[in-house]
Design goal:
The chain has helices at 15-28, 38-45, 69-75, 80-89, 102-112, 149-167, 188-199, 225-244, 246-256, 260-266, 270-275, 302-317, 320-326, and strands spanning 2-6, 31-36, 54-58, 95-98, 123-128, 136-139, 174-177, 204-208, 220-222, 283-287, 292-296. It has 330 residues and is α/β, with parallel strands linked by helices. The longest helix has 20 residues, at 225-244.
């Protein structure tokens, strides 16, 4: 198993990407191909080359976060994103991990790998866990801002397969994110999607509301990419704000007469903070394309990169892509 890692993508590339890749190679015993500027990567990873199964694939160009995905993919064929995706296409790598421009990763995957037969639009599936024992998959988490009802049904199918294979839940509960439980609630997309999901063979439990996300009511939370991305970033922002808020910390400290780690453990917030930390899951899976692609957070540092590689390793080992290809989407 060789996992290609975009060493040029993300706010902390290449140093933190390389550090995370080295830790993953040490812990998970996977071969890693670092994709980026060879002269830089040779210095950063030089003493590990040939020892941990780490190699370097030269990619002289980088796609910035604010560049147009379509234009950048076409104009920068030697970028780390395009080169990494092509390694997957050519069978050199089993998976590709990138913390770079999400739109560029998505478009490069479409252009190079193509969609799985029957899939209208691939989607990003992101594991989230707030106050439940098992995480849920939020899909779509940002790939498709404008959706049709048929897209959401396929998102539910993709999410069902992913959760079944990754978490071992034989019949994942599928919930449609809406502003009410009744089938008449929501906009036209939500109402039409509800009826299609109800007619499907999926374990559809109906509409779920925002407050249900933290209650573990569904294993697969289906929505359009516009809404899903807002939900995802709200959870991330809440976690960041909670952990960094001096005022909240002072109030809790005064109430419990404890500080720091002892406070978090005593009030049961240590595990909550950990579950809300995007670094624990590392990345989201792009489902519906012909290959295993993990999209890591743009702010990923070594820990998040290591966990994203772990996610890629698990996705490959469980044969998620192959299982998705076997499904009938007609």
């Amino acid at each position: 198993m060789i996992i290609a890692v975009d060493a040029s993508g993300g706010e902390y590339a290449p140093h933190e990407i390389v550090k995370g890749a080295i830790k993953a190679a040490q812990e998970y015993e996977v071969e890693i191909a670092l994709v980026g500027r060879k002269e830089i990567l040779s210095v950063l990873a030089g003493r590990y080359l040939g020892k941990l199964g780490i190699t370097i694939v030269d990619a002289s160009q980088t796609i910035g976060d604010h560049e147009s995905p379509v234009e950048a993919v076409h104009s920068k064929p030697n970028s780390s994103i395009v080169v990494g995706t092509n390694l997957l296409r050519d069978g050199v790598a089993s998976a590709f991990v990138s913390a770079g421009n999400t739109g560029a990763v998505f478009y490069s995957a479409l252009a190079s790998l193509g969609k799985i037969k029957g899939i209208e639009r691939p989607a990003i599936g992101s594991l989230i866990s707030i106050d439940t024992t098992e995480p849920a998959l939020l899909i779509d988490a940002g790939a498709n801002a404008d959706c049709r009802p048929s897209y959401l049904v396929q998102f539910a199918q993709l999410g069902t397969i992913y959760i079944r294979e990754i978490l071992g839940i034989s019949s994942p509960r599928v919930g449609l994110l809406n502003n009410g439980e009744e089938d008449t609630k929501g906009n036209r997309l939500a109402q039409e999607s509800y009826h299609l999901l109800k007619e499907s063979k999926l374990n559809f439990i109906g509409n779920i509301e925002g407050h249900d996300i933290s209650r573990g009511r569904a294993d697969v939370i289906v929505t359009d990419g516009f809404t899903g991305n807002i939900v995802l970033k709200t959870i991330e922002g809440l976690g960041d704000t909670f952990l960094k808020s001096r005022q909240a910390g002072r109030v809790l400290s005064e109430a419990y007469h404890l500080q720091g780690r002892a406070l978090l453990l005593d009030v049961g917030l240590g595990s909550l903070a950990k579950r809300m930390d995007y670094r624990e899951y590392g990345g989201a899976c792009l489902l519906g394309v012909n290959g295993n692609i993990i999209i890591a957070h743009g702010r990923s540092q070594a820990k998040a990169v290591k966990n994203a590689i772990a996610s890629a390793r698990q996705t490959v080992a469980r044969g998620v892509w192959q299982k998705i290809k076997e499904e009938n989407y007609e």
